[in-house]
Amino acid sequence: xxxxxxxxxxxxTRKRIALVAHDHCKAFLLDWCQRHREKxxxxxxxxxxxxxxxxxxxxKLPVDSMISGPLGGDQQIGARIAERRVDxxxxxxxxxxxxxxxxDIKALLRVAAVWNIPVACNExxxxxxxxxxxxxxQHSYRIPDYSSYLAERx
Length: 154
Description:
It is an enzyme of class 4 (lyase). It catalyses: dihydroxyacetone phosphate = methylglyoxal + phosphate. This is Methylglyoxal synthase. Belongs to the methylglyoxal synthase family. One of its GO terms (molecular function) is methylglyoxal synthase activity. The protein is an alpha/beta fold. It has a single domain (about 5-154), classed as Methylglyoxal synthase-like domain (Rossmann fold). The chain is about 40% helix and about 20% strand. It is built from 7 helices and 7 strands, in the order ββααβαβαβαβαβα. The protein has helices spanning about 25-35, 35-40, 50-60, 75-80, 100-115, 125-130, 145-154, and strands at about 5-10, 15-20, 45, 65, 90, 120, 140-145. The longest helix is centred in the last third of the chain and has 13 residues, at about 100-115. The mean pLDDT is about 90.
C-alpha cells in the first residue's frame, strides 16, 4: 500500500473562520459568537447564507456569506476548504434533526478532515478551539501532498 506524503502548510495569524449552524442551532451559534466577538473580530469570518446574515447583523462585523446551506452553501465552504481558503470550521449541527442536505454536510466535514483543518461541532469544542494559543499566531501543520498522490494513480 502506498502512503500519502505530507507537506507543511502555515496558517496565518489572521484566521479564516467558517461559521455554520443548522436551524435549531443558530441561536446557540449567535450567542457563542457574541461571547467571543472580540476574538472573532481579529479574523476573517465566512458563513452559509442565513447564518451569515444573522451574524453580520448581531456582531456588526463583516461576514462573507455564501448561499443557504441546503442550496449549496455547505459545498461552497467545502470548496474554499479544498482551495485552502478556510482555516477553521465551527459547525453547530443538530444530531437529532435529519437534514435534507445531509450528504452535503457529510462532504463538508469530510473535506475538513482531508485538509486537516480544526473543526468544532459544538459549543464546548469551539470554546477549546478559540482559547488555543495557536489562534493568535502563525501555526504550521501537515497537509497531504496530493500532487504526488495523484501522480501515482495516473
